[in-house]
Amino acid sequence: MSSEHTPWDLAVQAADTVRCLNRRALRPDAFPFPTDVHHTLGALAGMLEQLPDTLHRLAAGLHALPADHLAVHADPPTPEEYKARVALELGEAIADIERAAARLRQAQHTAAELVWTGPIPGL
Predict the structure, then answer these.
(1) HSE (CB half, 13 Å, CA atoms) of 101?
(2) Are 42 and 74 in contact (CB under 8 A)?
(3) CA distances (Å), 84 to each of 5, 57, 59, 62, in order?
(4) 104 contact partners, CB below 8 Å, separation of at least 6
(5) What does pTM read for this prediction?
(6) What percent of the chain is predicted at pLDDT more than 90?
(7) Which of 42, 41, 14 shows the shortest CA–CA distance to 25?
(8) What is the DSSP string of 6-67?
(9) In terms of pLDDT, which residue wins out, 99 or 67?
(10) In this structure, are residues 3 and 9 in contact, taking their beta carbons and an 8 Å threshold?
(11) Which residues contact 78 (CB under 8 A, 6 or more apart)?
(12) Which stretch of DSSP H or E encloses residue 104?
């Protein structure tokens, strides 16, 4: 991955990839074996487990912006109050994401108990 990509570029690429996954998962044969579900859940859980760090860094980047270079469309409140509101929302989102990642890991472990007993295509 090139270092020329901005965080925004990379976030757009990630969203595009999830949209592609959604389209691919619409097909009835998208998950031909239980292991496909298990591995997909694991990859998605891994993605969610990384997202809180990204959001912490995003909050730090916003916090680092100098207040004297910011304005708010409607005064008051001040830019600092808006930055604090964003941080609060991100904190709540991080907690929700961490819960979702834990649920995906649990679903992954549960899916691991399923065993394919049908015929193997192509054999």
Answers:
(1) 15
(2) no
(3) 27, 15, 9, 10
(4) 41, 44, 45, 48
(5) 0.86
(6) 78
(7) 41
(8) -HHHHHHHHHHHHHHHHHHHTSTTS--SHHHHHHHHHHHHHHHHHHHHHHHHHHHHHHHS-G
(9) 99
(10) no
(11) 67, 72
(12) helix 79-111
Place of tokens 């830019």: 79
User: Interior CA angle at 111 toward 108 and 112, to 5°?
Assistant: 90
| 34 — pLDDT class (breaks 50, 70, 90) | very high
> What is the residue type of 106?
Q
How confident is the model over 44-89, as pLDDT tens digits? 999 999 999 999 999 999 999 998 888 888 767 888 898 999 999 9
